[in-house]
Protein 1
Amino acid sequence: MAELERLANHFGDIGAICNDASFSLLHAHMGVLREHVLRAAHACFGHRLMMDCIVPGGVAADIAEDGGKHIRSLIGTVNSTFPELVSLYDNTASLQDRTVTTGVLVPELALQYGAGGYVGRASGRSFDARRWPGYPPYAKLTFDIPLREDGDVDARVWIRIEEVRQSVALIDQILAGLPGGPFIVDMTRTGKARADREGAALVEGFRGDVFAWVRLARDGRIAAAHLRDPSWFQWPLLEAAIEGNIVADFPLCNKSFNCSYSGVDV
Amino acid sequence: MRKLLFKNLLSPPLTEPAPEADDLALAHLARSFDDAQRRALGRSLSIRHVDAGSCNGCELEIHALNNVFYDLERFGLRFVASPRHADVLLVTGPVTHNMRAALERTYNATPGPKWVVSVGTCALDGGIFADSYACVGGVSKVVPVDLHIRGCPPSPVALLQGLIALLEKCAGAA
């Protein structure tokens, strides 16, 4: 699900960045790919954005019986259309003119602010929560973490393109090794625990590492919680990246960061 | 690029046929239109989207309306950048206290005749944010709502069904 979400959002972002350079052809094509991913998600998990599909103890429902078929057909579509679109991006001089050397984020700042996701990885910071601290099943899967040093809009687009390729390969591997057995364990418990309990997790979302911390009271209710969106470390860097750029390039810089509004408001 | 464009010329469009107008929405809308308004607006509506504290899930699906599968503009519906240009306010989110004044001001800045369409469970009654100290809870507590589109978030098809119902009422076809 995380890799499908990464696919959908990276497609959307790549298209939207091109659209901000008035190259709507790629926007339309990427929109098609994004819609294909959302429809496959709906067919497999019952929700286009896969909301409420992951619950305490596991997943809310098993993948649909014909889910594998939907995902394989999606991967087929991506494999047959994406490379052509990538070469269109790479070979269109008017588009490259807008993205290359635009909105440069220097590696020092990315490191200083601990920027994750494509923002960090386009500026030389290779952090990826799937690799470190890591969480199942990624240790058993083979994937690369793309890295660039240039830190411009073009680099952030290329990180996304590479991550699309990695995610497609990951989905292939996950599908091949899909385990049987129960998909959820019962988390309800009776009686009171001896003390408050708390836990934290770091998960690699499409924007970068999402941190979550929850403390449960003795009766099992949530006593306190904190969610940290990756955009917390990316919004301030956008300000640094747009410095010295022309006003017309602001939408490009902004879209290449694609920071979350609601994620930071949480 | 030429090859891709040529291929697009030869392949059939991906745009899907329009869904039927939502019956529930049609019934709901019956009271909010009169003939004078229909004549003024014809079969075209400009929409201003207002995020009143949404999780952005509704926004993702609203954006999807512009992709080639749903192609909102073929219905004469388009998004505009200012409430001054709008006939319809499309409001998402449980209306946080911080966004209340903004929503009211947007409503007041929209010239009549105007309609408010609330989108998503949060906009109906606050959804999972209902009774939160940060939320007013539901768009109708702040501005009068003419149509509600259900879902968390509503699918693009559900959004289209609601908006087409609004158009049909507007054009006097229903």
Protein 2
Amino acid sequence: MKLLWKLLRQHISIGQLTGFFLANLFGMSIVLLSIQFYKDVIPVFTEGDSFMKKEYLIVTKKISAIGSFAGKTNTFSEDELKSLQEQRFSKDVGAFTPSQFKVSAGFGMKEAGISLSTEMFFESVPNKFVDVSLDKWHFDKESRSIPIIIPRSYLNLYNFGFAQSRSLPKLSEGVMGLIQMDIVIKGNGRLEQYKGNIVGFSNRLNTILVPEDFMKWANNEFADENKPQPVRLIVEVDNPADDGIARYFQEKGYEAENDKLDAGKTTYFLRLITGIVMGVGLFISILSFYILMLSIFLLLQKNTVKLESLLLIGYSPAKVAIPYQVLTLGLNLIVLALSIGIVMYMRGMYTEVLTQLFPQMEMSIMWPAYVAGIILFSLVSVINIIAIRKKIASIWLHKS
Amino acid sequence: MQQTLPAVFADRNSIESDVWHKDIRFEKKGIYLIEAASGTGKSSLCNFIYGYRKDYQGIINFNTDNIRSYKIKQWVEIRKHSISMLFQDMRLFTELTAMENILLKNNLTHFKSKKEIVSFFEAMGIADKLDSKVGRLSFGQQQRVAFIRSLCQPFDFIFLDEPVSHLDDTNGEIMGGILMDEASKQGAGIIVTSIGKHITLPYTETLKL
């Protein structure tokens, strides 16, 4: 093999291979970095509400100044609910049930001398709209602990407002999940203490969500009023961009709360931009691949007579191809390793900024970059290997 | 070989030859001399039998197998283990030394020991050229290197395409001796082509191409 290499390495053009190397390194780094960046950033916009059914809208009635004075109610009646249910776009409709009792919640670390306490309210939606695993999303009377989903903005309020001003540690979502809240419920002349566990954060639900079974039970225990009329509805839809929804809402004077569009727009543009960047990277990669193929073909062409002689003295085409295949494979492998290194370095730089902006973000291993890199590497290498094989086969058949 | 003819001769009206358009057999242990004027298809014959070219009419069989149907893999095996060929243009690698040229073949077959190879070089009187680049050797010296290389494999037949065109008679005789020695050791057949000057061997048959 050493002799074979000594013979066949002649005419290798260092300039061409360096050109390929740099171009491919550049292209591959761009591709991997854009994929990794996209995967790192996208959860900030989308995955926050993974515990809720994918496509849903929260519907309220418009509150207008005149309406409030005229005493017009903003609750939904049974009929209105039914009508909404019957619409083509709605898959399922559920009502928010507000708490009919007084709640105050506090959390604090006695050791650190911090304690926050506030008056609150609870709401619940039917369990089918919540995607938290059922054993977590369940109120247990024995342990007196209530699972709670709070808006993510509360966490930001703490991290950027409270913690910042008192130089307290910022909390990630993971840490928040470990902290128990003290919840005091008052009503019907009773006062009881419970523990609250935060099981999720929501970008879109502007409420403090508790399980439906707890709400039913607590409303029974601590309030004696009849079933309250819902003021907010949750509607599961197939396609939130359906213009039928907008028309219907307009007609009825409903409003969709903090519309999904905002996050949708952001992710759309993010996707578009990373798509363009990735496209440029891929284009560079393809061009560099082309340089490599040209260079190898030129090399094969220059060595045709030698290759032919080798075949004639009993070397198999596969064996003769090995040096060239090893050469390209080696180059591709170095490019892969280096570009992953570059992505790691760049990622280190941007995560610093990102974690400042979104403390709840947790950086995992960069699987997307690894997977994409390995796919790209294998694809390029397989094509290289096949192309070299074909070229040598054509030398066997004296087609060149 | 049955009625074999190079495709380029197909339009000729009459062919006077002991080989083309005839049914002939080469037997193991036989020693054949093919005499030919230049341009009568001597190298073509070698190329056909060696699987390098396929532009012929008729049928060439090894035992009973038509070689036209051989796959690349089979040819590779034949070139490694069954047929050895000393090419007219030798096909040595000029940028490698004489020894490296031999080893390139021997590493493939592991047929001869390094000692045997060196003793061939000594017998052929080119022991001092072992580590010289083949490009710097004279044509006669290159012919001897190529000959040694052709011995570095097991074979049923050895083809020598004008092996002594640039050798003096003494060296030709030495080559003939080694050749007979190796061929009889393996019970192989020898086929030599020549355009005039030929190596002295106890030929069993002489064919005019």
